[in-house]
Amino acid sequence: MYIFNKITVNPQLPKKIEKLSDISNNLWWSWNTEFLKLFKRIDIDLWERCGKNPVKFLKQVEQEKLEIINNDSDFIKEYNKNVDNFEAYMNSKNTWFNKNYSENKNDLIAYFSAEYGLDEILPIYSGGLGMLSGDHLKSSSDLGIPLVAVGLLYKNGYFHQKINRVGGQETEYHNIDLENLPINPVKKETGEDLIISVKMPNEKLYLKIWKIEVGRVNLYLLDSDIDENIKEYRGITLSLYGGDQEMRIQQEIVLGIGGVTLLKELGLTPTVYHMNEGHSSFLVLELIKNIMENKKVSFNIAKDIVTAKTLFTTHTPVPAGNDIFPTTLVETYFKDFWKSLGISKEEFLELGMKPKEEDKTKFNMGILALKVAGKKNGVSKLHGAVSRELFAEIWPEIAPNESPITHITNGIHTCTWLAPTLKKLYNKYLTPYWQDKIHINETWEKINNIPDEELWNDHKLRKEKLLKLVNENVTNRLRNAGMHYEQIREITSKLNSNALTIGFARRFATYKRATLIFNDLERITQILNDESRPVQLIFAGKAHPKDIEGQNLIKRIHEISMMPQFKGKIFLLEGYDIAMARHLISGVDVWLNNPRRPMEASGTSGEKASVNGVVNFSILDGWWAEGYNQKNGWAIGSNTEYYSYEEQDKADSESIYNILENKIISAYYNKQNGISKEWITLMKNSIISTGGNYSTARMLKDYTEKLYIPLCNLTNKYFKNLNLVTEYNEIKNNLYANWEDILITQNNNLDNISIDAGKNIEVSCTVKLPNINQENIEAQVYYGKILDDGTIENISIIPMELTEKNEQDKKYTYNAKIELKTGGNYGYTFRVMPKHEMLLDSTNLNLVKWITK
């Protein structure tokens, strides 16, 4: 046997086209696909073999072909155009952020996420959270937001999916080929790899640092698979969401504590730290520890400083959605950490528990983040409301609907998910430079300028591409499962580009109810077998390797697709990834989404579909609960609360069948000269209504205006001054010590009076304060309409005006006017809330004092 030494010979780029390499190492190309066409022109066959990976392509292309293309004037013209675009983008000072927040140019946002979906060649994502994180970075880059990101390098990525002959999901893990990816090791000035360390129970854990350039944003990834580590530590970052709870806590220590350590090593001092889900929540502990050590302050003062610079985004609508670790495991990994914070072990562990929690055996990462972070948000309007109720026990004195959790609805990075042919069409008919105005709704109104025939013909081409992919995928899957070619052809030959095509593609979690449309097999059989109005269904998605129930859903769809009446009508794809998602969200006619309301936090696949002119057919949950306008798609079911899942499934599946039969199918086949004007109107309404509102351009604008900048300004103005922080901490302690002694009395009795609608009433109360300064409280009127069952709806809260002071007796009189516009019975009362210019949200302190009889 011969042993060969490996020698890598990289082709040399001619000087005239040398920047191909620089741009290939920046994921700017993942949403500027005109650049990728250059590689097709050099060698289209190699481009396909390299998996459309520009870095890999440049390492394998023949030198001769580079020399030939170097003398192609048309190619050079296109190359120069792309280089100019890239350099103009990277060097621009005229960004949205600079134009609106020039005074914050020295601030930096640090974004932490466990996964990032950036491109199909980088499998360090599993699902929606990763897609959102990747899009977050891209729009931050587009808008010029000063942001740096931190994650983990999973060399095995997330699993590759196979579906066997009985529909069982099989998982395969492939090593990522780092040498051929736009990922580069971070080097020290000496040229050595940058390696940091994190304390672990057995030995130090060493982490190599890698960098991915995402336009103007840098993403740093931590990697434990290096020789410096003991064997049991090397595998910590190998797989995404792999291993047991111990590996999960190890990964989250690396992400949170290792991430903070990394930024410090790089010399970066973020003003704000954004935790995207609870995986990185340990970062707040490291920040507190560092501030205590550097500034020589107490735990409480350090915690106040960290609160002012942290933001937590929750993506779960269920209590179990956050990582929960046994306290014994937390003790093992944080042994003596609480001593460095100057608190007891019990106080440390209670940071991850609800107040007054009786079960002291569980440490919740979401609760840790919610307790410390100054700003908290859900990811849709409905999810914000659900989160306030879900986590209400963290602030037991506050009404659940007032829990300090706001919402910013998720969006998508439009140019990443928009089909290239459709982008070309938009370039033709929308306002020039529309890509810089994605978040502006008026940009999208010009969609109506696109001729119906052009939009439909473009959609048909995308649909044909999708069906070609479906044919290849199903053929390969069934062939590998041992099915005969004739049997496979019997199925794939029925793929019909003229048929109404419905897509369902997402993570196969049970609450997403992938099999809901099959609740009544007889009914769906009739729908799918109407030869005059054919309908076909395409399914794709992965279930977590440990989610047996989710895997059973995949198996059930396979079984149904093999039934005689459904062969060639239902197609199940394997290996769902970003590349496949692009074909699906732009190639089907209808995007089906039927989660169990209200368990879909946001969902973004429907947003991706809508901007491509695919019409949504969805439960009113997540983003669709606010995006649906009766003209841009269809709503499944209603907002009714059901007594059982069975009752809910029956009602929602009946809604699916009725809408399909009476609205969707008839609208699609209402054609004249091959086009349904009714359908084209739906497509255009879908694009117009969602293009701006549900983009990450709008989303990042909201994050910046509502969360990032308020935190930056608060930190810069107040929390860098230790004297102010100390004073604020003393005021808080004083409020806690004396709050219960506040006394509120009503001055004018307006009980059981009657007035005409449209008139105001003036109400008044006196607040007697104990050892509390008047400027640290706000008196409020709390009122609303009384329903028949005695509850109050449409609650309004009005700050009251201080009209009289009696400093000697510490009594203060407040007045307010209540405007009663409509008839009915109303109720009102008075309350006092804490107030301070350094307090982010009055409910954060869990203090409220109501008037008592």
Overall description:
By secondary structure, the chain is of the alpha/beta class. Helices cover 39% and strands 17% of the residues. Helix 19 packs across helix 23. Strands 1, 2, 5, 6, 7, 8, 9, 10, 13 and 14 form a 10-stranded mixed β-sheet that branches. It is globular and about 90 Å long. It has 29 helices and 28 strands. The model has no long low-confidence stretch (mean pLDDT 95).
Features:
853 residues, alpha/beta, ten-stranded mixed beta sheet, 29 helices, 39% helix, globular
Annotate the secondary structure layout:
Blueprint: H1 19-24, H2 37-49, H3 54-60, H4 63-70, H5 73-91, H6 96-100, E1 109-112, H7 128-143, E2 147-152, E3 160-163, E4 169-172, E5 184-185, E6 195-198, E7 205-214, E8 217-223, H8 231-234, H9 245-265, E9 272-276, H10 283-295, H11 299-307, E10 310-313, E11 324-326, H12 327-333, H13 337-341, H14 345-350, E12 362-364, H15 365-372, E13 375-378, H16 381-390, E14 406-407, H17 414-417, H18 420-429, H19 452-480, H20 485-492, E15 500-505, H21 521-528, E16 535-540, H22 548-561, E17 570-572, H23 578-587, E18 590-593, H24 605-611, E19 615-619, H25 624-627, E20 633-636, H26 645-668, H27 677-691, H28 696-719, H29 722-738, E21 743-746, E22 760-768, E23 777-786, E24 792-799, E25 801-806, E26 811-819, E27 826-834, E28 849-850
Parallel strand pairs: 1-2, 1-9, 2-8, 9-10, 10-13, 13-14, 15-16, 15-18, 16-17, 18-19, 19-20
Antiparallel strand pairs: 3-4, 5-7, 6-7, 7-8, 11-12, 21-22, 22-26, 23-24, 23-27, 25-26, 27-28
Helix pairs in contact: 7-28, 9-10, 10-11, 11-29, 19-20, 19-23
